[in-house]
Each structure stands twice: as structure tokens, then as C-alpha cells.
Amino acid sequence: MIVVVDERSLVTSGYSAWFAREGITTTGFTPDDFGDWVASVQKNDIMAVEAFLIGECVNRSQFPQKIRERCSAPVIAVNESQSLEHTLELFQAGVDDVVRKPMHVREILARINAIRRRYGTGEPGTQVGPIRVFSDGRDPQINGIDFSLPRRERRILEYLIANRGRRLNKAQIFSAIYGIFDSDVEESVVESHISKLRKKLREQLGYDPIDSKRFLGYCIDLN
User: Fold this and answer.
1) Which domain-ending residue is among 118, 134, 149?
2) Are residues 92 and 135 in the same domain?
């Protein structure tokens, strides 16, 4: 899930539609609402955020520090001006990258992945055992061969691998895949998605790499 902050509701709804075409869920906030949310949101919810996209906001230079106090996800600022000083101020405030309009959401996703690589292996995508995931809309690979998955199953696999070593409960996975405030879908849908994903992985790998424990949640264990 990507959190978008902008004082214009038309902008946040526009990003939501654009990212949805790439299979990415977004949650939009006004600056005032975001300030309150980031200070009080439960840890499980903010850990479901994959990146923050900060648009036009009053005092937006304050947001990177507030985010860093709660979460290490990439922070990207959208700069609508051509001012070098403005861009430098945003970097000084702590954003990881600055993009200028117009840009395609795939460029934003590529920049998010580049930031992750900067603090990771430096390799394209994330390789764990025989599986490589990309988090930019591409299908994962198993042993170097493309492994086609429906959008939700692909996103769950990406999220499990991004959080390998941690056990994730159903609510965390739901928030990451559907968004924190989606009330139109029941959390139980996660169980259905994971059941289908496990069956496909078992057929391809010869074993089930997703470990589940009642009341504790899911984690991925790849040889």
C-alpha cells in the first residue's frame, strides 16, 4: 500500500486510480489528517505502508521526520515547481527522492524499488531462495522462469517476502493489499487468496513455503 498526501482530493483520487491500474492500493490523506494519523496509527498498520508520496502540502517539510519516527518506508516528494531551492529543501527535510510532474506511476514504482535496493542487495527485485519478486507490477520468477499470478496473490507474495522473518497476521496483510480504510471487502478474503497462492507454489516448488499458525499469522520459509 502507498500513502498519498495532498491538500487536493482530486489529486489523491487520481493517484488512487492510476496506481490501481498497476495493482497497487493507495490511501489518500489531507495534510491535517495525515499529521494526526501518522502520529497515532497502530504499528501494524503503518508497517503495511510500502511508500509515502507527498504532494502539495502546507509545511510538508515536516512530514519526513514524522514518518521516520514511525516507519522506514521510502518517502518521495512530488514537486510541481521547477525551483532548485525548493527541491534542495525537500532533500534537506529528509525525503528519499523528488519527482516532478508529469510522471507515470511506473516511474514512481521504479524509484521506490531503487530506494529499496539502495538499502538492500542492489539487485533488481528481491531474490529469496528460488523466488524473485519485483514489486513493480511484474510477475515473480521461480528459478528464473516467470510465474504468472493474479494481482492480489502476487501482491501477497511480494509482501510476505518483503517481511520475511516476521509473522504477519491477517489484518496486516489485508491492510497492505486492500488499504487501511477499505470497508467494502472482508478481511476473510485474505485466507482465500493465500490458500490459492499456497496451492500454486506447492505445485511449482514441491513444498508449501508459507507457514501459518492460528492466531499468529503467516510467514514465508524458502529454502
Assistant:
1) 118
2) no
The structure's pTM equals: 0.63
Give dist(CA 103, CA 80) in Å, integer.
11
Cα–Cα separations (whole angstroms), residue 199 to 2, 76, 149, 162, 189: 28, 37, 12, 20, 16
Same domain, 6 and 92: yes
Output the nine-digit C-alpha cell for 195: 490458500
Q: Which domain range does residue 94 map to?
A: 2-118
10-residue stretch averages of pLDDT, the chain, 223 residues long = 90 87 84 89 77 88 91 89 85 92 85 76 72 82 91 90 87 81 74 94 94 90 77
**Cβ-proximal residues to 96 (8 Å cutoff; 6+ apart), any chain:** 74, 75, 76, 115
Q: Residues 33, 26, 75, CA angle at the centre, nearest 5°?
A: 75
